[in-house]
Every structure is written in structure tokens, then in C-alpha cells.
Amino acid sequence: MQEEILHFLSLYTRTFPQRKNIHIAACTNISTGWEGELLCIDLAYEEDGERSNEEVILKLYYGQSGIRKAQKEARSLEQLAHTGYPVPRVLFSTLDDSPFGRAAVAMEKIQGHTVAHNFEKSPQERQQALVTQCCQLYVDLHKLDWQPLVPDPTRYQARDVIHSRVVQAATLSEQQLPGVFDPVIAWLQKRASEVSRLHLSVLHGDFHLNNVMMRDDGAFFVIDWTGTDLSDYRFDLGWTLLLLRTQNSAELAGMVLEEYQRLAGHRIEQLEFFEALACMKRLFEIAVSLKSGTTTLGIKPDALAEMKRQVKHIQAVYAHLQERTACSLPEIEKLVLASDEQID
């Protein structure tokens, strides 16, 4: 970690030349996700004759797609902050020429806890209030005017995002795991033309209670923007509901869906199509990693061991996929639906 601290100090000093006598008081690894390593750096400095403190999150990205993810996250945070959407402030980023040997983004640390942490410790009425606040952030994101955020809005308006997402899923599946997901691909292709085409929205890509921070003063911030996209908001919602259903509970997923619909002012139609795609995406990521390692997908090496421990989650995803599509995937059953003893 000492080498990372030295590189951080060099970049921080270059970014803020007016800050003098910079001192690192502490550096802690707080990694929890699959895609990167998170370091919390507590530093002190002098500026305009006054001593100040700052805590910074340094995110280091893994794998072949790390540069793309870092670039996407830094750009998304800067653009969203410009619109007034509550996200951490970016301090600096370093990509293909990174001294860390991998892409990195430094951003402010939100002083507080995740909503997931607060949710678990709260009484029922407070849990409902937390869900409402998170869903309002989600609805606000999907209603955000995205056109000022891209250089050529017409290029996005002409896309059939439903068809292109199914084609992308089919192509990746054939390249990485040929034949394995064919029944699901056929199910999606058969229904894609019947799915209504809606306006484009800004997507988070991984919105759940662990990616919403509640600051000590009660303000909410959304973190982890490596999966940002412009597409049908139901792709976002399908992924969120899948994670809540399989990692938390069906009751919490239902609560979030009900509150999202209430705040949005309308019922979400044809959601089963997007949930099926979300299930396939999750199973694909896990199956590719178990078969070929984690580098291709840009997730940290020890995520593989974590995936192997999440047998019940994987089984729940597969069961939900079968519930939505009635498709059976024998290769997935053999690859990732082993018992705890077999995986260990």
C-alpha cells in the first residue's frame, strides 16, 4: 500500500498545487465490491495559511476493461454533478498512463453510511422512509434531461435500445459461452419486438442500497457509476429488483417496485422481459468468471472466491430466470449450481 500512497501524493500535489505540507494520516482498504479496490485516505494540508483535513476515496480498477470503467465513472460523476444530481466530487483520474499500473479515480469521501447499513438498523417506518428517498433519487435520475450530457443527442435517439441489447447479449454469449444461453436468447428475441419503446434515460447500471450513501447530515449521494448508460430505464430497474430479490428479499424488491411506481406516477409495463435479461447478465458474469477467470470482466481476482461462496444467490437468480422464462440451462446448472461442498 505504501507505493499506492506515494503515487497518490504525487497526483494530489499536482492537482492541488496551492496546498502545501500534505501529510497522509491514515490509509485504509475498504473494498467491498467486485470491480475495484477502494482505499480511504485521510490527509492534512495547509492552504492560505490554514490547516485543513480531507478524506479521499481512491478507486483502483481491475482487468482489461478497467480503463473504460474508470473513464466512464469519472465522466459520469463530473456530468451528473454539473446537473445538480447528488454524487461524490471527482478530484482527479488517471487512465492508461496511470502510475498505479491500473486506472484510478480519486473522489471525495461521503461521511456517513450506506443506506443498506442504515436500513438494517432502522425500525419499519424508518425503513419505508429510506426506501422512499432512494426511489426518489432513482426516479429523478431516470427523468433527468440527458441530451446536454452527450455531444450528439441525435445519434442516441435513433437507436433501438431493446433490439441492440438483445443482439449484444447474444453476441457476447456466443463468443464466451457458445450455446449455453441459447434458450434464453431465443425467448428474448421472440418477445423483443413486442416490448414498448420508451424515451431514453440515464441509467446507473447497479443501483441498490449499498450504492446509496447517507451522509451524517442526512443528505443522500449515489456512488459507483461504472455502468452508466443511456437506454430504457427498465434495464436499470430490472437489475435492481433482481439484486434485491436474490440478495435481500422478495418483500424488499416488492416494496421498492411499489414505491418507484408511486413516485413515477405510472405502472411499469413488461418488466419481466428486463428481469430475464438481468438474470442472464448475472449468470453470464458468474459463469464466465468461473470458467475463464475474472480479468476479462474487469473484476478483482478474489471476487471469484466470493462468487463461489454465493451459492444461494446464484441458485435464486437461476430460479427467477426459470420463473420468468421457463428456460432450462443445463450447462449453467453444471457450472454454477453445485452444492457448497462441491464448490469448496
Query: Which descriptor suits the 3D outline?
Result: globular
Query: In what range is the share of β-strand residues?
Result: 15-25%
- Total E-strand runs: 10
Give the helices and strands as they follow along the chain: HEEEHEEEHHHHHEEEEHHHHHHH
Structural class by SSE content = alpha+beta
Major sheet attributes: 5 strands, antiparallel
Low-confidence stretches: 339-344
Strand order of the largest sheet: 1-2-3-5-4
- How many individual helices? 14
Query: C-alpha Rg, in Å?
Result: 21 Å
End-to-end Cα distance, whole Å, is: 30 Å
What's the pLDDT, averaged over the residues? Answer: 91
The helical percent reads: 40-55%
Features:
globular; 14 helices; 344 residues; alpha+beta; 3-stranded antiparallel sheet; 17% strand
Architecture overview:
α6 packs antiparallel against α7, α8 crosses α12 and α10 packs across α12. The longest helix has 22 residues. The radius of gyration is 21 Å and the shape is globular. It has 344 residues and is of the alpha+beta class.
